[in-house]
Specification:
With 221 residues, the chain is α+β, with helices and mostly antiparallel strands. The protein has helices spanning 39-46, 53-58, 72-82, 88-97, 134-140, 195-201, 214-217; strands spanning 4-6, 16-18, 61-63, 100-102, 105-110, 113-119, 149-155, 158-163, 172-176, 188-192, 203-205. The protein has 7 helices and 11 strands.
Length: 221
């Protein structure tokens, strides 16, 4: 359900300002703050800012209708369960933007190619007991992914993973989901050197992106 703010001066029927799902997760309410009516004022006064707000607005992302807010304590519990700390930037993102999806087409490049590589699907989050909860996914892919890798988003044909430890800690990879289990030819493609770089590399398009072959790029047939 969307969050709402009641106006104490509207009596006997309380007028309600409905906050879009994008601004659902975390709010500060104090008795000294005057009631507000405008959407912009509500978001500015009550919502705890997230460093990825501008990026998510640019990508036209919205929270899934069934998502529930989480707190710092939920993330700490998750870190204890999996035995790894989450990268700081991803922790910040997860507080407000777990279980979010984007309108139209959002693409990301690979680390060695600035062109859009694959379409981005929804981000996973924390919702204990659900099949798309980060814990559930970790159990589901145990034996297929190295333990240090954590799935955090989906894409056509694969998953996006974060490395949680080792020399590549913090890096973002694309994993071809139908590939064989971990081995010498384990199919990982480096997408970004850290989560923050990944987020700022995302591109929103109104139409699907189509890769052109070299002769098509040159205008040849």
């Amino acid at each position: 359900c969307p969050a709402s703010v009641r106006h104490k001066d509207d009596d006997p029927l309380h007028r309600v300002v409905v906050l879009p799902a994008l601004f659902l997760p975390r709010y500060r309410f104090t008795s000294t703050v005057s009631p507000v009516s405008a959407y912009e004022e509500t978001a500015e006064l009550y919502r705890v800012k997230n460093k990825y707000d501008d990026v998510m607005r640019r990508l036209h992302c919205r929270a899934m209708p069934w998502r529930v807010p989480i707190a710092e304590a939920d993330i700490q519990d998750f870190e204890r369960e999996i035995g790894y700390p989450l990268p700081a930037d991803y922790r910040t993102f997860l507080l407000d933007y777990g279980f979010t999806g984007c309108d139209r087409y959002v693409y990301y490049p690979n680390a060695d190619d600035p062109r859009p590589a694959r379409e981005l699907g929804p981000f996973y989050g924390l919702m204990r007991g659900e099949s798309v909860d980060l814990r559930s996914l970790r159990r589901l892919f145990a034996g297929y992914l190295p333990e240090r890798l954590m799935v955090f988003a989906t894409t056509p044909g694969g998953k996006l993973c974060l490395s949680l430890s080792g020399e590549d800690a913090g890096r973002v990879y694309w994993w071809e989901q139908n590939a064989p289990p971990e081995g010498p030819d384990f199919p990982l493609i480096l997408v970004a050197h850290d989560f923050d770089s990944f987020m700022h590399s995302l591109v929103w398009l109104e139409e699907p992106y189509v890769h052109l072959k070299p002769n098509e790029e040159a205008g040849q047939t």
